[in-house]
Amino acid sequence: MEVQVWLCMCLLIHYTLHASCYSGKLLFSTFSRIMEFDFDTYSATVLLELGSTSKYAIDYDYQNRYIYFPRYSYDDIVRFAYPSSNTTLQTVVQSTSYPSGIAVDSTNDHLYWVDDYRGQLSRCNIDGSNVTVLSTFINPWVDLYR
Asked: Going by CATH, does the domain composed of 11-136 fall within 2.40.300.10?
C-alpha cells in the first residue's frame, strides 16, 4: 500500500483565533510575499517581499516570536523576528532539497519540514541544530488546497 503524507498548513482558522485574542492580526503568505492583515483597520501590510523565490508554507513560533518558512528554490529554511521592524532573514537549515512544508513545535522547541526531493520528513531544534530524518515517504507534498 502506498503511503502519502499530506502536511496541511491550515493557517486561516489557527491564526485567526490566536491573532484575534492578541492583536487582531492574521499572518499569511502569497507566492512571493509574507503579509499581515489587520482586522481592526481591514488593511493588509507586506512584511517581507521575497522576489522570485517561492514558498509554500509559513508558521509562527509564539514563544520565541519568529516567522519560519522554507524557500523552495534556495533549499533552505529561514526565519525573521515578528513583530519587528527588522525583517532580516536568518538561515536556520541549509542544504535541504526543495523544502515544501513547515511546522513549528514551540512547546518542544522543534521545527519539522517536508523535503520534497528526497521524500523525507525531518526535524531539528528550533535553532537549526540536531537535524534528524524522521521518515521517508513516496511523493510527500504540502496540500495547500484542502
From this structure: no
